[in-house]
Amino acid sequence: MDAPLHICQATPADAGIISRIVERSIRVGCALDHRNDAKIVAAWTHNKTAEHIHTWLTDPRLYLNIALLQDKPIGVAMAASSGQIAFCYVQPEWFRRGAGQALIRDLEAWLLNQHLHQARLNSTRTSEAFYRHLGYRASAETFSVAGLQAIPMHKALAPPS
């Protein structure tokens, strides 16, 4: 990326744009997982509406961040105070350009601030190599949910040296 990427905590005013980023990332970027099956896409996106996201943004147990490039939102991620990373979605035209990595690193810093030393997530097949690149390892057998394969992964978190 030529311009600097800025990662910040999302606000309730961001709910609409977050919903659009998530839905587009799923529909376009995750076709390997949903195979353009309308039922699977609907099941995956049903709780990604602006209303649901607004609720998440006001829950103190959750942290949503947003990646901005020249003030344009290009990605979003969410973690829970339990140590679970719920998701990381980037606009498809910004895949493999550092936004997802920056979002996850910010979530990991937030989890460390919550005094947690391990992050957990369920990866899709599309995202598995991305998470492995960031140091996540499979922690259990793959399972199926709503027509998707989920790969449980974890990573030990260490404070920056």
Please outline what is shown here.
The chain has six helices and eight strands; from the N terminus they run E-H-H-H-H-E-E-E-H-E-H-E-E-E.
In words, what does this structure look like?
Helix 5 (99-113) links the parallel strand 4 and strand 5. It contains 6 helices and 8 strands, in the order βααααβββαβαβββ. The chain has a domain at 5-116: Aminopeptidase (3-Layer(aba) Sandwich), CATH 3.40.630. With 161 residues, it is an alpha+beta fold. Helix 1 packs across helix 4 (50-57).
What count of helical segments does DSSP give?
Answer: 6
Structural class from helices and strands? Answer: alpha+beta
**What series of H and E elements makes up the topology?**
EHHHHEEEHEHEEE
Strand content: 25-35%
What percent of the residues sit in helical stretches (DSSP H or I)?
25-40%
- The CATH superfamily label of the domain at 5-116 reads Gcn5-related N-acetyltransferase (GNAT)
CATH fold-level label of the domain at 5-116: Aminopeptidase
Report, as a whole number of angstroms, the end-to-end distance. 26 Å
What is the makeup of the main sheet? 8 strands, mixed
Protein name: GNAT family N-acetyltransferase
GO molecular function: acyltransferase activity, transferring groups other than amino-acyl groups
Pfam family, one: Acetyltransf_10
Domain N-acetyltransferase: 5-158
Core attributes:
161 residues; alpha+beta; Aminopeptidase; 8-stranded mixed beta sheet; 8 strands; globular
